[in-house]
Amino acid sequence: MSEDVITVITTVTEIVAGEFGLPVAAVDADVDLSSLEGADSVKVLRAVAKIERTYDIELEDDQVFGLKTVRDAATLVVATLAEKEPSGGGR
Amino acid sequence: MAEPSTLHAALAAAARRGPDTPVTFHTGRERLGLADLLDQSHAMAGALAAAGVRRGDRVGLLCQNEADFFRVLIGLGVLGACACPLPLPTMARDGYQVRVRGVIAAAQIETVVVSERLTRLRGVLGPALDGTTAVSTGDLRDHDAPPDSGVTGEDDLIVQFTSGSTAVPKGVRLSHANVLACLTAIRDGIELSGADRAGNWLPLFHDMGLFGSLTALYYPIPLTVWQPSVFVKDPAHWLRLMSEIGVTACPLPNFAYDAMARAVPADEVTDYDLSNWRVAFNGAEPIAVDTLEGFLDHFAPAGFRQEAMLPVYGLAEATLPVTFSELTAPPRVDWVDRPQLAETGKAVPVDRGSPNSRGVVSVGRPVTNMAVRIADPETGALQGERVVGEVEIRGASVTAGYLRGEQPFTEDGWLRTGDLGYTAGGELHITGRRKEMIIVRGDNYYPEDVEAAVRTDPGVHRRRCVAYLDEGAERMVLVVESTEEDSPALRERLRALVATATGLEDVRVVVAPPQAIPRTSSGKLQRLASRARFG
C-alpha cells in the first residue's frame, strides 16, 4: 500500500510540475501547492484533470477543495482507485 | 394583475407561463421543471422558518452550482430573509477560512445553510463556521410552505460580498426590487425570446453566474448549469457540451475566451458548431483586444458570428448590468494614443497601426433604467466625451448601500464605481480602476490582504509594509521595510506567503531599508507616495 502511494506521488509530482511549468525537483510532496511559483486555481484544476485522465478516475470538487499538497492528492488517488477496483480487476 | 414585486412572485409568474421549463444541473445530474423547483423552494422556506429564520435575518448560503442554491435563495426570499452567498474554495488555502469568517462577522450571520453535498468541506472550513448554526439542506425538505409574510420589493434579498478586502469585506445590499430591475434589464438588453437556451458555469456565488442564471428562470427559458471545474478542467469539452445542447446565451469572463481558443486546435475548430450562439457575454474582467479578436478569428470557421460577442460592463453594486454593447453589431475597439491617455486623461483617436496605440473595447450604452456619467474623481466635475474620469451610475438595480462602513455615493446620489473610463460616441470605455484592487481570472485582490499576509513575518521590520498597484494597474507591488539584506530568497519567501494567503501569485516584492516607506502625518503608510518612490 505505501509503495502504491510512493509511485503515485512520483506521477502526481510530474503532472503538477508539468502544469505549473516547474522542474520536478521544485515540487516537494509536502509543500503547500498554493505557495509554488506560478500557482493559481486554474493550474491546480488542470493538474487535477490530468490526474483524472491518467488514472481513469473522477474526483469530486469537494474532494479537491481539501487538497493542499502532492501527498494529499496521491493519497486521494490511491483511495479512489481502491474504491473503484477492490479486487484489482479489469474495468 | 400588478407586476410582481418580489423574486418569488416573479418566478411564480414565470412558472405559470412555462411550468415544465427544464432546469438542469451537471452536479448530481439533477433535472427538474421550474414549477417543481419553486414548490421545493417554498417547502424549504417552511423548513427554514421552522428552524428559526425570520424576516430581516441574514443567512449564509454555502452551496455549489446545484439546485439547492436556488431553493435556499428563493426560500429565504419568501420569508423576507436575506441570503449571503459564501464563496467556495478551489483548493485548501489558509485565506479561505479568514474570508468566510470575515463575511460572517460583517453580516452578523447566525445561521449558515450548507449543501448536503458539501459535508467533506467541513475539513477545509475548520473553525470558520464556529459561533453559527450550520443547517444541512438535506434536513430542509418536504416541509409545508410558510404563510405569506408580506415581503415587499424593499426587503433585502441578497448581500453580495464581492467588494472589499478579505479583512474588511463590503456587503452590497440588494433588494428584491434591485434584483428584478437587473433581470428585466438583462432580458430586454439581449432581446431574450422563447427560442433561447441559457448556459452557465460561473460560480453562483458570483454576481455574473447568479444573475445570468436567474434571468433564464425569470423569462423562463431552459437553463443548464455546470460546475466551474467542468470548464476549467477541459474548456474544449465544455464548449462541445454547450454547443450540442444548443445554448444561445452564456456569460463568460475574458480569460475563458482565451482558454477556449487555446484548448481547441485550429484543425479541430470545424468539428464544433457555434452558429447557434447568439449572446456571448464578455464581462467581469478587463477585456483584452487580443483575446477578443483571437477568439473571433479562431472560431469563425465553427460558425461563431462576430456580432454574438457582447462586451459588457457591470458590478456587484449595480446588482450586475450597467452597460451592454450593441446587440446586433460586432465588438467595437477604440484606438487611442496611449501616452496621452496616461498623462492627460484624454482619449485621442489614433490609427491602430500607430506605435503608441492602445485599443479600448467599447462596453456600449446603459441598460434599461440605468444612467451613467463620467466625473473627475477629485473635484466631481462632469467630464465631456473622450475625457477619462470615474464612472458613476444611478438606476433601479443600484444598491441602497453597503451593510456598514463608508458608502459609495456622491452628494447628489450617484454611485461611485471606482472604475475609470470615458465615453465616445455615447458608448462607455473602461480604462482602469481607481480602486486599489486588481482582478486576476475573475478574482479580486486587495492591497490590504497582501499586506496582512506578510506583516508579521520576521523579515518585515516593525510590520512596515505597503502594497499597491503599479502604474498600469496590472500588477501588485509589495514594499517591505527590512533589516535583512535584500536577497532573492527573502523576496521569494514573502511572495510565497502572499500566494498562500491570498492566491495572488504575480507580486513584485521590493525590499527596502527601515524608514524607506513614506508616511502621512498620521503615520499611516501611504500607497500613492510609495508608488512614486518605488515604481
From TrEMBL, chain A:
Pfam families, alphabetized: PP-binding
Mind telling me which Gene3D superfamilies this protein's record contains?
ACP-like
Classification via InterPro entries = ACP-like_sf, PP-bd_ACP
Every Carrier domain range? 3-81
Q: Which PROSITE patterns match?
A: CARRIER
What protein name does the entry list?
Answer: Acyl carrier protein
UniProtKB/TrEMBL annotation, chain B:
Source species: Actinokineospora diospyrosa
GO molecular function ontology, one term from the record: ligase activity
Residue ranges occupied by any AMP-dependent synthetase/ligase domain in the UniProt entry: 12-403
Segments traversing the membrane: none
Q: Which UniProt keywords apply?
A: Ligase
Q: Any keyword Zinc?
A: no
State the similarity comment.
Belongs to the ATP-dependent AMP-binding enzyme family.
Q: What is this protein called?
A: Acyl-CoA synthetase (AMP-forming)/AMP-acid ligase II
User: Would I find Ligase among this entry's keywords?
Assistant: yes
